[in-house]
Design brief:
By secondary structure, this protein is an alpha+beta fold. The chain folds into 3 domains: about 5-75; about 85-165, 2-Layer Sandwich (GMP Synthetase, Chain A, domain 3); about 170-275, Roll (Thiol Ester Dehydrase, Chain A). It is about 45% helix and about 25% strand. The protein is built from 5 helices and 9 strands, in the order ααββαβαββαββββ. The chain has a 6-stranded antiparallel beta sheet with strand order 4-5-7-8-9-6, covered by helices on one side. Strands 1-2-3 form a 3-stranded mixed beta sheet. α3 links the parallel β2 and β3 (about 145-150). α1 (about 5-35) runs antiparallel to α2 and α2 (about 40-85) crosses α3.
Amino acid sequence: MEPDLPAEAVAYTRKVTWVWVGFFAINGTCSALLAAWGPLSWWTFYNGILAYAAMGALFAVEWLCRQRMRRRVRSSPMNTAAVRLASHPWVAAAAGGHAGPQVPGMVVALSDSGRIALSRHGRAGVVGELGQHGAGDDALATPMAWRFVDALPEAARIDLLLQAPLPRIACVVTERMEGDIHVLSLALPLDLACFVDHFPAAPVLPGVLQIAWALEFASSRFGTPTTCRGMDQLKFQRLLRPGDRVDLHLRYDAERGRLHFAYRMGDATCSSAHLRVEAMPGVVDAR
């Protein structure tokens, strides 16, 4: 089933072969001795029940040991790659895992220079560079799935993170009210799904997503719909890139049916607009 076994697994299968050779040698000797000198009832009990029970027990123990060996063999190339990646200037920390039974993966916490590289070269460029560095001369140590994070999660969550889809919305870090303005502090994930295609070599948060997020965040806070009928004074003044921290300011004018949003980094406005929305039927303005 797996012809290209690493040396560690080949050595294990050789040991298993010798264990079974020893077992059958002992089994045959016991059967012969009982046939020659033992009562017929003893020979019948041994060959009809005891030998099969011992064989089944040995198979069960070997199967459990084999699963442990498989996990160790699967993890070994990724652990080796993680050690190599730790020496790369773009990497603050790395941990290997699996996105599936045959899909080795790597979770990487990028350093400051790694974040800059991600913004300059895009996900594909960073994956290409780190993949080659992590694999070295061992093709089996090339990760097939990648996740970029601010800090590594605990070891038990590495595989879960690799198996999860790429995030599609910013993470809400904190929320606060400034008068009638709802302010959400957002963190843009380093591996936000849209950055894969927009743009591959220079990831930028699309304007349409900025509008969609404003509508979605406002919907759960003001009861407004997730669509709008029109936009006024739409402005995009600064690019939003992977890992950026930005404040989203939301203000809803229920009487005019308008939602104002503004993405800001410090005192600088990145984008803003007035969206014409209608309150959902039966929703009372709680302000």
